[in-house]
Write a structure and sequence with these properties.
With 308 residues, the chain is α/β, with parallel strands linked by helices. The protein has helices at residues 2-22, 51-59, 91-94, 115-118, 139-146, 159-163, 169-179, 200-209, 228-234, 245-250, 254-260, 281-291; strands at 35-38, 64-65, 68-71, 77-79, 100-102, 105-107, 151-152, 155-156, 195-197, 216-220, 240-243, 264-270, 296-299. The protein has one domain (29-84, 136-304): Phosphatidylinositol (PI) phosphodiesterase (TIM Barrel), CATH 3.20.20.190. The protein contains twelve helices and 13 strands. The strands form two sheets. Strands 4-3-8-9-10-11-12-13-1-2-7 form an eleven-stranded mixed beta sheet. A two-stranded antiparallel ribbon has the order 5-6. The two termini are 42 Å apart. Mean pLDDT is 93; it is low at 1-23.
Amino acid sequence: MRLTIALLFACSAATSALAFADEPRRVFPPYSRPTLIAHRGDSGRAPEHTIAAYKLALEANADFVEPDLQVTKDGVLVCLHDTTLERTTDVETVFPGRSRTIQGRKVWPVADFTLEEIRRLDAGSWRGPEFRGLRVPTLQEMIDVVKGHAGIIPETKAPESYEALGLDMAGLLMDCLRKNGLDGPGADPKTPVVVQSFSLDSIKSLRRKHHCRLPILALLQKPAQARSDALAELKGLADGIAPNKELVTGDPELVRNAHALGLSVTVWTFRAGRTGSFATVRDEMAHFLYELKVDAVFTDNPDQFPGR
């Protein structure tokens, strides 16, 4: 009798699991399926924000590749996460006398250097000698590699800092996208573009000053930003939110609340070796995508994306 009940229970559970798997999976725009975003390129296998990392992301079939943006002294957009150069280049060796001291630490701000000077820097050796000679790419060089193969999801980084120097990052971004025929929704079906920013002012500038019609994500990292009233304020300004993992796990209703407003949910950042209670980064991404129902994930390890 116990065996019969156990078998019936097992069959019922299996049937339920299959039914759940067959349920239609609604994914919110700008996405059409659970979406893979290569964070700084394939930064798990190559130095972040290098052409090598972007090419590996394409080989991993990334849906989107992310360039973080900084602005050079002469007003050129380059792909770099930090506002300063010392973490990922050899600027300390090449330009030892060009540092600033900020909060007791020597730094080499991107905005203090021209593009020609930045091209002299090695952006690969910090990850290993096999990457020696890689350079900091411009946004245009990144687009040249990715266009036609994947979407592009640029982030405006520290735009207010550049604004104070007379450098309009949002304007430079829209000019570059326009030059490449990527400044409108559906302009190039093979290269969708989504813009992201932590800066609400930058998002407003993109919408109101530069008339950006592209989808925009509001990056979130503080619990107050994830409250229902805060999400409601984003409606009409942003098309989606991009919270960190901790915000999503800390508030079980966040994804549901965002979706109720028609906002997509894109979560950052998934990294091998930093997966909490999950055995692998693949398992962690699968949990967020298929159980928590987020729409897209940023990952350093696009080759480990579940469901491919």
